[in-house]
Give the backbone structure.
Amino acid sequence: MLQVEVKDEVRAGCCPRLTRYQLIGLVFILSSSLIYMISIRVSEHWVRVRASSRTSSLVCASYIAHQRLATVYTHVNSPGDRRGHLTFEPNASRHSYFPSALVIGARKAGTRALLRFINLHPDVVISAKELHYFDSFYEKSFDWYRRQMPLSLPHQLTIEKTPNYFVDLNVPKRVYHFNPSIKLILVVRNPIDRAVSDYVQLKFKLMKKQQKKRLENGTIFSFGDFEDYIFVENTSEVNKSYAPIKRSLYSCHLERWLTYFRLSQILVVDGENLKVKPWEETQKVETFLHLQHQVKRDQFVYNQTKRFFCIKGESKLGHDLHLTSPRCLADSKGRQHPKLRHGTRKILRNFFQPFNSRFFSRIGRKFNWS
Ligand code: A3P
């Protein structure tokens, strides 16, 4: 451990001609350069920085994280201590590794929440973006895929999530060729609510696009009700080819995966329980990935406004800068669902029932989806 003191208090008297903002800029540049030099010099070691204020510690941390010089490891301020204590691990000892687990779906079932929660584990690193390698970018090499992965240490486990993998016809075979013993995680939720959520997301995305057009040429945007899409025109027959419905036919998609992978390679996560007891589902993931149990109930805090659990500030033990306010998922998660027309839910319940039964018998477990 190397201790370095960074001071950001420059007396106004020593630079009489500089404005306040110029002064702040100068301090930023000086402290950044200092940290840069330190990080280069001790690239094989841990660096501990004791900054003279919280602000300077945040400035240093942002710079280092931005430049990918090192990973900020801890950020602890004891009560009443205005200084920032940061520990960095230089990235020189980190590399990009292939993922050993994939969150394959299902879209809108809670995949982002699960990924965030398992990322609380110090031995896990996650790919922040959905990479779509096995469905959209498969023409690129395996090595390209590896290079997209976050930096990590050899003992850490990398996880990637792209929910479209679950439903794409080509993906199971491709993943099998990539790594036949890879671990797969599938989050599921009531297929009706999942379909509604999927519809809401499609509507929002289209609205965003259309809003731009409307501004350009004055056309009014309109998007039909859920029922306008899920039924074959002028009938009460459910339209299986409407994507939000199709993506909820879990048994059909799972069947494809089971032609390549054993059931024991697939962890089915209960997306409903993930909302109310996220620590329970995350602990199941830890067990599945043979990780020591690290994620605890007290790392979560319920947010009344969002009506979801968020991650308490400063709960991550590695990889990220620790913030003091709770970290909730983006507003794109937990959008309001439309009220379904009378009878719609019943029709959908009957429609999904045989698919759900097949899914339950395939996984040897039942969910209470009504
Ligand atoms: P809704 O937007 O329909 O409520 P995904 O990340 O796969 O797109 O899933 C989005 C869903 O995650 C949300 O669907 C929400 O219900 C669910 N979810 C589960 N736990 C959550 C959490 N802690 N915060 C926000 N959303 C959560």
In short: The pocket of adenosine-3'-5'-diphosphate is lined by residues 107-113, 163, 197, 274-275, 278, 308-309, 329, 333-335 (CB under 6 Å).
